[in-house]
Amino acid sequence: MKTLAIIGGGAAGLAAAVEAARESRRRSARMEITVYEASDRVGKSILATGNGRCNLSNSAIDAAVYRNAEFVREAYRALPPEKVRSSFADLGLVMREEAEGRIYPLTNKATSVLDVLRFAIRESGVRESCGTEVVAVTPVEERFLVCFADGGTVFADAVILACGGGPAQSLLPPAYPYAGVLPVLGPLKTDVAPIKGLNNIRVRCEVSLYGRPCESGDKAAGRRKALPSASLKACEAGEVLFRDYGVSGIVIFDLSRFAEAGDVLSLDLVPETSEDALAADLSLRVERFGSRGAVELLSGMLLAPVARAVCASIGMRADDPVARGRTADLACAVKSFRLEVRGVGDVRQCQVSRGGFEVVPFSPDTMESRLHAGLYVVGEALDIDAPCGGYNLHWAWTSGALAGRAAAGRCAP
């Protein structure tokens, strides 16, 4: 009997197991499929997604938003997104669509997604071997020697590597180029002086990420120099959550894919109004409410703690009236409240990792290695990631299913 070893019992690994079992049934082939998972149960990572709700896909999947987009595009041609979603429906999962095309289980619980996957592999005879850490996968002639941390070994006719970017690095020979893994889709650590007193305050704004711009001059003396447009890396709009260490929220999570220490986040706190129009409005406010302090002048536009932070960023005293000649400076600060990025914030909140095996040695329509037939790499183990919104889980399901189908076909007589 042919054997298939799936290393990793997360989203991609379980999708691979389900599709491998389906393909073996279609071919009336007898094969042994085993999922090896290092933790005490499969699917733990699924339960943590979407704050426990599991944003499993998106109704508008677009390969262009992914890292290594052309590879992903070819994979989605081989297995279109709608077929992945219909596959879940076949397993009994009822889904619903929310804002921005995000697909969730109708129950609003990640456990429902994991349940239908586990029931499917159980009913197909797929074995789960939990608490089993794989430490090496070695090609031996036309098979693979799978080595475990406890010293045990097994031979497999095909192997699907689905254990994520970090754990996968040491499993394959050096012939497979590997990009170092970084946590992304998480909060960002910034300089904390500008955001002192803003912890847990939320603002809706537009955020631009600039790459390591140089800024000079006395901010208190006048308007700050404009950030060079050539250094703009990305821009997102939505809700930002201030934290003691920096900023969080889906907007920041998406920008974290491109951010590096030394970059600058520029928050436009009134994106619906141009800077010139805002300056004119502030001038009118000075005429009408000239005795008010700077923070009071911004009331009705910004929360008081946010207004205080904006004023401090240009050396303006919060309780002093705004001079007529400084309304342009204040408008500039409201339209570009700047924070320097210091790195990733709370790593535990990061949803995916960037990095993993480079895609060149793998075929996008099967995930099979071009160097060793019968070896497949899927999910986060490849250097592929995307923004929030169900894109990363959809990649896990797709790549796992493609590999499961191909591996079962290879093992069929």
Outline the fold blueprint.
Elements: E1 2-7, H1 11-26, E2 31-37, H2 44-47, E3 57-58, H3 69-78, H4 81-90, E4 95-97, E5 102-105, H5 110-123, E6 127-130, E7 134-140, E8 143-148, E9 153-156, E10 158-161, H6 165-168, E11 178-184, E12 188-190, E13 202-210, E14 232-243, E15 246-248, H7 250-255, E16 264-268, H8 275-288, H9 294-297, H10 304-313, H11 327-335, E17 337-344, E18 352-357, E19 375-377, H12 391-411
Parallel strand pairs: 1-2, 1-10, 2-6, 10-19
Antiparallel strand pairs: 3-5, 4-5, 7-8, 8-9, 11-18, 12-15, 12-17, 13-14, 13-16, 14-15, 16-17
Helix pairs in contact: 1-5, 1-12, 3-12, 8-11
Quick summary of this structure?
The chain has 413 residues and is an alpha+beta fold. The chain is built from 12 helices and 19 strands. The longest helix is centred in the C-terminal third of the chain and has 21 residues.
